[in-house]
TrEMBL record:
Domain MoaB/Mog: residue ranges: 4-170
InterPro entries in the cross-refs: CinA, CinA-like_C, CinA_C, CinA_KH, Competence-induced_CinA, MoaB/Mog-like_dom_sf, MoaB/Mog_dom
Similarity annotation: Belongs to the CinA family.
Native species: Alkalibacter saccharofermentans DSM 14828
Protein name: Putative competence-damage inducible protein
PANTHER family the record matches: NICOTINAMIDE-NUCLEOTIDE AMIDOHYDROLASE PNCC (PTHR13939), NMN AMIDOHYDROLASE-LIKE PROTEIN YFAY (PTHR13939:SF0)
Length: 411
């Protein structure tokens, strides 16, 4: 099947928005056996979009459009596709009811222009949107498939994963089976380098990487007639990946590091307290993304100043004067103070120089100490992290989360 992607939006053309949708969709289509030969970005102009569409239906079997499904006058993707195919637009009652329910839930009045989101080309299949008000649309027409999805990635990605990929797999004689690996501590390029030989020689299964801030999702997909046949293909690659990634591999499913750590804390009924200096509450914030963490998260203190470290954690003034707040000794005393004051099973502390100013030759920007106390043992690690202030904070939080993970699984 020949595929094509059309991204609609003037904001993409002028650089206000980074087009991550094209990369995501291309990788997904490749894993489904669809060859993408063209990618086009076109502004919110129906005549130019019509011109692109006319070429697309001549040369491609599958056309996926993103954007232009909103409520404003320049959102004209559905209308332009319908005009190209000679289809009328009609109210889709289920989409209308869902929109009404959404606006009622948020105690907001639905404006008249929102109604256009409920009008669909006659005969189209509707793709539900659980994270927004614009449904997706799938049209099968004279051997071609045209799929329209909203532009925001938080809406597009789950719709593509849960509906479009299922649809495409149903069209294939073979079935697709995937293994997922979550990696932390190395970037996408370093991960690719570790697996370059199998990536360069991939045919079946195929390998795709998806980078997030200090996390990478690795997906290995095999197509086969049966699950047993696919398993034989996937098992060969699985052994190589596990052997090479070692401790950098933190999960064999698509789960965030903070989500996994929160789950481990809950499943083991491990209570935890935190003292965050350079991370400013980032670790705590990420843990609280998981429902039920209140069972384990006892307390957290953001102790940025020296005075707060002394007052709330019992760090000695002499320690700060001799070694400084950014030191192994300070981190150790922060941990001891947490355990003494809170009596939790585990304690975690961070202290460092996030930058971009404040560093010295002895203690440069990016110097961070991350410590953990668990089962009577105190362990503090020193790290030198490069990059922006946000990068230093994010990396420090991930190091702390990974330390918690390792302690809980006995590494």
């Amino acid at each position: 099947m020949k595929g094509e992607i059309i991204n609609v939006g003037t904001e993409i053309l002028i650089g206000d928005i980074l087009n991550t949708n094209a990369q995501y969709i291309s990788k997904e289509l490749s894993s489904a056996g669809v060859s993408v030969f063209f990618q086009t970005t076109v502004g919110d102009n129906p005549d130019r979009l019509m011109s692109v569409l006319k070429e697309s239906v001549e040369r491609s079997d599958l056309i996926i459009l993103t954007g232009g499904l909103g409520p404003t006058q320049d959102d004209l993707t559905k209308e332009t596709v319908a005009r190209l195919l000679g289809l009328d637009m009609d109210m889709h009652t289920e989409s209308y009811d869902k929109m009404m329910s959404f606006f009622h839930k948020i105690s907001s009045k639905m404006t008249q222009n929102n109604l256009k989101q409920a009008y669909m080309p006659v005969g189209a299949h509707i793709i539900p949107n659980e994270n927004g008000t614009a449904p997706g649309v799938l049209i099968e027409h004279e051997g071609k498939v045209i799929i329209m999805l909203p532009g925001p990635p938080r809406e597009l990605v789950p719709m593509f994963r849960d509906f479009v990929m299922v649809y495409l797999q149903g069209k294939s004689q073979d079935k697709f089976f995937s293994n997922y690996y979550k990696v932390s501590g190395i970037g996408e390029s370093a991960l690719e380098d570790m697996l370059i030989d199998i990536i360069d020689n991939q045919t079946n299964p195929t390998i795709a990487t998806y980078a997030k801030p200090d996390e990478v999702l690795l997906r290995v997909t095999a197509n086969a007639k049966s699950e047993d046949e696919a398993k034989l293909l996937l098992d060969k690659t699985d052994k190589i990946i596990v052997d090479r990634l070692k401790d950098n591999l933190f999960a064999r499913e698509d789960i965030s590091l903070n989500g996994l750590v929160a789950k481990l804390l809950i499943d083991t009924s491990t209570t935890i307290s935190l003292a965050e200096s350079c991370t400013g509450g980032l670790i705590t914030s990420r843990l609280t993304e998981t429902a039920g963490i209140s069972k384990c998260l006892h307390s957290s203190i953001i102790c940025y100043s020296n005075d707060s470290k002394i007052q709330y954690l019992g760090v000695r003034k002499s320690t700060l004067e001799k070694y400084g707040a950014v030191s192994r000794e300070c981190a150790e005393e922060m941990l001891k103070g947490l355990i003494k004051n809170n009596n939790t099973d585990m304690a975690v502390a961070t202290t460092g120089i996030a930058g971009p100013t404040g560093g010295t030759e002895d203690k440069p920007v990016g110097l961070v100490y991350v410590g953990i106390a668990y089962k009577g043992n105190i362990h503090v690690e020193e790290h030198n992290i490069s990059g922006t202030r946000h990068r230093v904070q994010l990396k420090s939080a991930n190091i702390a989360l990974n330390l918690i993970r390792k302690q809980l699984i006995g590494l």
